[in-house]
Amino acid sequence: MIPTLPRLLAALALTSAAVAQAQPAAYMLDPTHTFVTFEVSHFGTSTNRGRFDKKQGSVQLDRAAKTGKLEVTIDTASINTGTEAFTKHLQSKDFLDVATHPSAKFVSEQFSFNGDKVSEIAGQFTLLGKTQPLTLKTLNFNCYQSPMLKREVCGGDFEATMQRSQWGMNWGLNMGMPDQVRLVIQVEGVRQ
């Protein structure tokens, strides 16, 4: 039986709608709701914390197909610990060497999902000119319709633990300073 023209058009419309829904949505990171902070133990006594004030990036997310892409660039000179001397030491060749390596970058095309929510993002982190794998674990993820922006916003809280020596950041290890650094990332992306 040959379908009638109206049925054929309806079938094409449904197919086109399904294809349109399966395409990834693009999001730009909102710098007012995106923060990259770090925590490192200070000789097992207290916890030193700081953040990077300048970062930019984009995300492509397709919750139906359970795929995503992420690219985030961090201005390493924008590190801020709240203590000028400590901040300057972290900017020096002993740690971030911001004069030679003014940025760090995380890229990923490996998103894991639990239902339609992102549960993990595995990617490559470039720091001090070296690229190593890094996995962000999801603590919280949500999408909502922003009443102020009139657009969809997706984001959440993520964390990762890295060994700084993998990127060649070895200063202080022989004095008992820890190698382990905890990254805590709060991120929101606005749909474009």
For this structure, the CATH topology is: Lipocalin
Q: Estimate the helix proportion, in percent.
A: 10-25%
Provide the CATH architecture.
Answer: Beta Barrel
Low-confidence stretches: 5-20
Number of strands: 11
Describe the 3D structure.
This protein is mainly beta. The chain contains two helices and eleven strands. The protein has an eight-stranded antiparallel barrel with strand order 1-4-5-7-8-9-10-11. It is elongated and about 50 Å long. The protein starts with a helix and ends with a strand.
List descriptors.
single chain; 192 residues; mainly beta; Lipocalin; eight-stranded antiparallel beta barrel; 2 helices; 14% helix; 53% strand
In a nutshell, what does this entry contain?
This protein has helices spanning 5-22, 84-91, and strands at residues 25-29, 35-42, 46-52, 55-62, 67-75, 79-80, 103-114, 117-127, 130-145, 152-163, 180-191. It has 192 residues and is mostly beta strands.
List the helices and strands and how they pair.
Blueprint lengths: L4 H18 L2 E5 L5 E8 L3 E7 L2 E8 L4 E9 L3 E2 L3 H8 L11 E12 L2 E11 L2 E16 L6 E12 L16 E12 L1
